[in-house]
Amino acid sequence: MATAPIEPPRRLVSALGGDPDGPAGAWLEALPAMVRQRLEAWELTPERVHEPGGRSSLLVYVRQADGTPAALKFPAPGRAPAHEGAALAQWDGWGAARLLRADADSGALLLERLQGAVSLRSLPEAKALLEAAGTVRRLWVSPADGHPFASLAGRAEEAVDELRALGAATPAVGPLLDESLELRRALPADAPEDVLLHGAFRQGKVLAGERTPWLAVGPSPVVGERAYDLAWLVLDRFEDLAAGSGAASAARRRVAKLADSLDVDRDRLRSWTLYRAVDSGVREMTTTGGDVQRGELLLEFATWL
Question: Beta-carbon neighbour count of residue 145 at 10 Å?
């Protein structure tokens, strides 16, 4: 079995390496040893590191002892890997990549291997939205008894405080920020349901598979209403909507179409989408490495709703 050190991709190092003495820096330093330990413990043969990779995890393509392909994932600190694994375990391959093994100490997850270079974003927009809606519908199940997932309601004040602090640096947001803060408090309080959500669902999180055409990956699981997951999908490829004529009308039509196709209340989806657009826009404009132009466009999208 290969024992050569596996180095994290540059994108991951850039995203996490700002504080070498902090938890993320320590995790990056220990990562090659953690990978080697999991390879040996689970009898895995590494093939290659997924490049350019993500900003919050390392993914290594491997072969299991019987030759079956798999993917070994190490979520970075703060990503609650046990919760990701718990969600994947509950779905058990229904609409999402199947969890094969998990290690609580390192947070490592051994996953069914999908085609990492082929996501729903490779499809025309209308087809991609149709497939995305069919995929996310499968994930909306009742959380198991004793589940570890936080709820949207339980995170309300934390989310409000965080957005307010970020918004203080972007005074031009004005009334949009106030409305978003009020929505983030009010929406979970009268939610019509509590189901297990992907939590970060978008077309790029749905990859081509072998046993079924499309499967979700990379959940940030949370319990709440379906409209929260759909709001992420409304914002997918929003730049394409903005570039076309009648962008505001097109945005509202997308809300209506997705809501109706999945039996979600239009007004609640509009409200969650507005909140998500403002939250994401403010983060782009205030976070180091963010895209100010993208942030401004997200805020403009919010006004269309």
Answer: 5
